[in-house]
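Re: [help] complex structure
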Amino acid sequence: MRTFYDQLDPGVRVCDGTACHFAGGPALAREAGGKPVRCLGVCYDPPGMRVGDDVTGGSDLAPRGAWGRGADFPRAHAPPRRSLVPPVVLRNLLGSRGASADEYRMPDGDTILRVVEASGLRGRGGAAYPTGAKWRVARDTPADLRYVVANGDEGDPGSYVDRVLMEQDPHAILAGMLACARAVGATRGVVFVRGEYPRARATMVEAAAEARDAGWLDPGFEVEVHTGAGSYVCGEETALLRAIEGLRGEPSPKPPYPAQVGLFGKPTVIQNVETLAQIPWLLQQGRRSDTKVASLAGPVAERGLVEFALGTPLSAVLGAAPRGARWKMALVGGPLGRVLPARAFDQPLSYDALPGLGHAGIVVFDETVSAGALARHLYDFAAAESCGTCTPCRVGTARLARAPDRAALERLCETLEIGSLCGFGLGVPRPIRDLLAAFGDEVFA
Ligand SMILES: Cc1cc2nc3c(=O)[nH]c(=O)nc-3n(C[C@H](O)[C@H](O)[C@H](O)COP(=O)(O)O)c2cc1C
Ligand code: SF4
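Output below.
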């Protein structure tokens, strides 16, 4: 149990997420006697460190590692952000912010459901499933109680937009939950916040109390905040529900889907916090946004959050390379995502054009990082985070690092793809196959 949940141990924790790993995280962990964790969500300012509830970035420490920015870099909790389009997700974080109460002004449930369905909005947590379709199933499933759950687990190393939204725009998320509750007839809301994000937890708790006291939530709709304990797989929706129920966070087979049989057996809509944060805007405008926020890390000129129109090429999202840096590849969508070599940086970023785009955490690597080093980092992550429920994933992820050659590695990938119960085991091979296709035997160097 203690090895499954890496936030249960007290003491110093040093981030070993992808960006921090390649920016001196392991050395800092040894120096500070810290336990490695994945990921503290300060990927733009690596390596991150947590002592108690205080999370700091690398610029709070002595500059270290090739990507260190020095002491003038913004503090960990305030990443730079910008938008290539009129911002929707970041609307309240760029430019002027409206009154919090305005986020909660919305029509009746039938109208909300109609507008969300007609908009064709797809979830931003990774699976890109149509939001309205999920809400319709939850509403049409007979029940005496329904739940809406905000997924703020944000497990992908390299991704930190959810942390920033929870810390700096909590009312947009809560208003999105209220809209969902009205549309499906839910009376209970749960915000599941990653254990590595103590500040996000505090702001969500405060905002929920403020919304309740100000009468912004419908009478009878109650929201509580649940904190994760440091397991990546708990971000998967069925595992997340088990975790809220107090059980070990293991995925279960689907169907039934949570919208039919979810939390405590009741119909439950689970949405990523970035999806929810768009809903108030969508209801005001009557149409969805086709934008997504990318979290940038590694050697790019402007690290931080960037909102872009889906379909924009990766190169435009990244902007310029820093002077003297030669890009080698990028990990897009986290450890279950995609690896793109620099020659493919004109790849459009959308859920259709790039399956595996996921939550659009993007870590860029220069020539100092070999394909083999990235592969080993991904194997470690897979072996450490597999929940162990099904054999192909439990055994297969442990064997990745020992595969002697390409044929053996591809066989393991195939086993994971065929035999895994959940999206974790199914997704682990994706970046490995990309690495093999782009870099061949360098993966074994
Ligand atoms: C291994 C695994 C981890 C996941 N982690 C997250 C996560 O941290 N946050 C998230 O929103 N979705 C995560 N998901 C996707 C959720 O299962 C689910 O599809 C999502 O929360 C639905 O919200 P959306 O439709 O708004 O994207 C994960 C999926 C898998 C397979
Ligand atoms: S695929 Fe892996 S993470 Fe998913 S249930 Fe099986 S063992 Fe657990």
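The CA atoms of residues 178 and 218 lie 8 Å apart.
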